[in-house]
Amino acid sequence: MAFDLSVIVPSVNGISDLKGCLDALFASEGASLEVIVVDRTNEAQRWTVERDYPDAVLIRVPPGTTIPEMRKIAIRRAGAPAVAVIEDHVLVPPDWARRMLDALEEGHDVVGGAVENAATDTLTDWAAFLCEYSSVLPPLPAGPSTWLPGNNVIYRRAVLERFDAVLDDHGWENRLHDAMRAGGVELIMRPDIVVGHKMHYSFGLYISQRFLYSRSYAGARVAGAPLAHRLKMGALAFALPPVIFLRTVSRIRAKNYHVDKLIRSLPHQVAFAVSWGVGEIVGYWFGPGTALSKVR
After folding, report:
1. What is the pLDDT of residues 7-63, one digit of tens each?
2. Model confidence over 157-212: pLDDT tens digits?
3. 139 band by pLDDT with thresholds 50, 70 and 90
4. Phi and psi (nearest 5°) for 177?
């Protein structure tokens, strides 16, 4: 069967998250989807996917496989002329696929949409979303952009193939998007194409995720650098928590986006900023370790 769109779903969380994501994808209207689930969790979850979603393509990978690696594996398996990437806790509306494809048909090669919070049960859920997405909260300018979110994005497959070697670096989407821009590919933001981000966190889980992500980020930045440079970068990172906290607060206030939730979650934001700073210090001084393989 010829598909209009291959959708990549790295599966790293629980089955309830994944089922919500897949239910939404298979309810899509106006386009035929090849849904590719790359799973690093466990056989019980994979068995559930095979039983409940027989039309999904399931790729098994080892538990320590990083999300960038999972994306790379699935992209190379994709068969449709367009490839989209989301997350296993992202909920797409029924017309999402059709609208993303229409955006490509307007002559664009890479298009990203907006991300809204769909996990609204607890203050911690709100705090985590505001912390992680302060830079991409609406309102967003439409048109050419210097960045796109990595969990609501579509690529023309022929364009992805031009940058296949970048995928082997196992970096996050910003590395791919920067390479594309350097290669003359225009990134287009469509803030009207919105997905829901429904990720539930405990306070401890999100603290640990901030630490792991920042350690992996910092460790990658100084890979192969002399010890003196790593020590210097780690020392400078002690100043990061207040900078990160103020940046998050100022962005959300400027956008006037759920400021009431921000005010209530200020103690969370302080802790999240400290966790990020500590992660960078550890990453600069001791390297990334296995942090990236544990990021969810």
Report:
1. 999 999 999 999 999 999 999 999 999 999 999 999 999 999 999 999 999 999 999
2. 999 999 999 999 888 999 999 999 999 999 999 999 999 999 999 999 999 999 99
3. confident
4. -65, -35
pLDDT at 1 over 80: no
- The structure tokens listed for 271 are 């802790």
- CATH of 5-197 given 3.40.50.10330, 3.40.50.300, 3.90.550.10, 3.30.1370.10: 3.90.550.10
DSSP states of the chain: ---SEEEEEEE-S-HHHHHHHHHHHHT--SS-EEEEEEE-S-HHHHHHHHHH-TTSEEEE--TT--HHHHHHHHHHH--SSEEEE--TTEE--TTHHHHHHHHHHTT-SEEEEEEEE---SSHHHHHHHHHHTGGGPSS---EEES---TTSEEEEHHHHHHTHHHHTT---HHHHHHHHHHTTPPEEEEEEEEEEE-----HHHHHHHHHHHHHHHHHHHTTT--HHHHHHHHHHGGGHHHHHHHHHHHHHHHHT-SHHHHHHTHHHHHHHHHHHHHHHHHHHHH--TTHHHH--
Q: What is the pLDDT of residues 268-279, one digit of tens each?
A: 999 999 999 999
Give me the residue spans of the domains in the chain. 5-197, 203-294
**Residues pairing with 135 in the sheet:** none
Give this prediction's pTM.
0.94
- Neighbour tally for 23: CB within 10 Å: 12
